[in-house]
Amino acid sequence: MDAVLVPKLLATSARGLPVPYPVHKTLVFGEGLDSAIAFGKFTADTAESTNMVKVAIDLPPPAKEPEVNDVTGATTVNIDSATQALSSLRSSVQNATFYERNWFSSNLPAISKWLTQDLRPTPTTASMKPVHIALISSILDDTEANITRADTEHGALLASTASVATAKLPAEMASYVEAWAERAHEELRDGLDDAVLSRSWRRLTWYKLFWRVDDVGMVLEEVLQRRWLVGAEREATFLAGRMEQAGFPEVLPQGSIVVDIGDTPVHSIPQHNTATRPLSPILPQTTETAVSTDLQQPTPWPARLPTTRIQLLATSTPPLHALAQHLILTTLSTTSLSSALSALLYVSIESFSVFEASAVAALGVVFSLRRMQRVWEAAREAWIGRMREEGRWVVKDVQADVQRIIKVGGRGDGGDVDEGVKERKWAREAVDRVKEILGRLR
Questions:
Q1: Rounded to whole angstroms, what are the CA distances from 279 to 305, 306, 383, 424?
Q2: d(CA 165, CA 158)
Q3: 250 vs 401, more confident
Q4: Higher pLDDT residue, 62 or 104?
Q5: Among residues 357, 339, 330, 170, which one has the least CA distance to residue 247?
Q6: CB count, 10 Å around CB of 143?
Q7: What is the pLDDT of residue 161?
Q8: Is the pTM for the entire model greater than 0.70?
Q9: Per-residue pLDDT tens for 232-244?
Q10: Nearest alpha-carbon partner for 77 in 115, 117, 120, 22
């Protein structure tokens, strides 16, 4: 019906490309019985509308004048007879009798009547022409047929894949998740090992802090952005697409408990995990534990890795940067105080020699530098260790959550309904409303 009621005609532009022209009525003309048979094959599985499509087949004139039937969707015409009638009338008005006989025998008046039918509003349809009502009804019927066909195809697809989804997909997805977790742990180990040996990390050696202290945040951010589970995050996105295609949801099936331990950052621990996270060795550890009763919204598991990275950037980088600044200030202060003390001893005590006074200053310098080295190197190692632990925890949690989703199977409680079903339901309701309005106009 689209090919008949929406023909593509050559445009008048320079390109001359075919442009669709929707019409209210279509007259299909054929020559001989072969054209009639071909049109029948073309529209074999199409529900034709007799008010919108008319088929005219050019056949020899019948022995008697054909009966006009406006109900049928096909009629016979004779173009030669109509041409002769028009030529005779144009040559002389005296041939009016010949014109009338041949013109009506060609059956073209039936086509003319059909073309001008329903072009004016009737008393019952004063606000709309009947031809417009027929066009809208045809569009509604076609839309309803498409919706029904889509529902049938969707049901057949679900029926054909039900057994596969229940038996094969969970096992395949479980194997994919295990392989992803294994690669993620390997990437975490190798990535952080490479980060420790990298040139940027060596820039944070304790004795370089005096002129590299402002680069601490930049170096730590570079380690997290380039070395911390970057490939695992990309693979998680790909795995999430495969799971969504298989019908598994992304939202965690259960909520989360927010645990706030002293000054340590907030961790989102799934309910199925009863283990507690280790305290950060960089920050002071306290024995007080505050448990918040606020419930967090379920987080899609593919977003766990980037969310954890952002949390680590916000919670672990500033304390280490502040520690570097504090160590530099403490070292310089201790060195200055020891130097001032040595000068004071040399001036106030006559028995103090320059060598003895310098020994006091050197002792203060060595003590402050040694303390700075010990604290800073321990803090760096603790930060790398924390990144390893956080990476292992998040990979373990994501793997456990995905395995729980797979065990639940499919879309679980039906929260993630097929969007196509919603669209078809909305379209069917819209078709019903328009049909109701058209029924009032008729």
A1: 20, 21, 12, 52
A2: 9
A3: 401
A4: 104
A5: 170
A6: 15
A7: 52
A8: no
A9: 888 888 888 887 7
A10: 115
CA dihedral angle for residue 170, residue 173, residue 178, residue 182, rounded to 10 degrees: 180
Q: What is the token pair recorded at 371?
A: 């303390």
Q: What angle do CA 341, 345, 350 make, to 5 degrees?
A: 170
d(CA 236, CA 16): 49
Section 135-157 average pLDDT: 80
Q: State both tokens at 32.
A: 């001989």
What does the pLDDT look like over 383-404, one tens digit per residue?
999 999 999 999 988 888 888 8
> Taking Cα atoms as reference points, which of 364, 375, 362 lies closest to residue 326?
375
| Residue 53 dihedral angles phi and psi, to the nearest 5° | -125, 130
- pLDDT tens digits for range 200-213: 888 888 888 888 88
- pLDDT at residue 262 tops 50: no
Residue 34 CB-half CA count within 13 A: 1
Distance between CA atoms of residues 384 and 396, nearest Å? 18
pLDDT digits (tens, 9 = 90+) for 321-370: 888 888 888 888 888 887 777 777 666 766 666 667 677 777 778 888 88
Residue whose token pair is 């929707």 = 22
